[in-house]
Amino acid sequence: MPKPPEACTTMAEVREGVDALDRELVALLATRFGYMRAAARIKPTREAVRDEERKASVIAAAVAEAEAQGLPGDVVADIWERLVEGSIAYEFTEWDRIRR
């Protein structure tokens, strides 16, 4: 179990914590993409996959949460833009795969 950030005194400890957190983030992304597969299965039309209003809402919520935790909102907005666009692309691929 890695040390919390505030308890780290060496770069090895920092790197251990970052590596462990990256594994957790990938596991969370796997779950998020599972929801994209579910959305692809549920949405009745291919056109329904892209929802710009929902995209804006998801990014705004992430930015608000980041800023509430003292993180830079612009950085989080950039990350979530890529995450949401990647999720949409994945959902399109899954929508097409399911309906072949």
UniProtKB/TrEMBL annotation:
The keyword Isomerase applies. It comes from the Bacteria. One of its GO terms (biological process) is chorismate metabolic process. It is an enzyme of class 5 (isomerase). Residues 5-95 form the Chorismate mutase domain. Keywords: Isomerase. GO terms for molecular function: carbon-oxygen lyase activity; chorismate mutase activity. This is chorismate mutase. It comes from Erythrobacter dokdonensis DSW-74. The lineage of its organism: Bacteria, Pseudomonadati, Pseudomonadota, Alphaproteobacteria, Sphingomonadales.
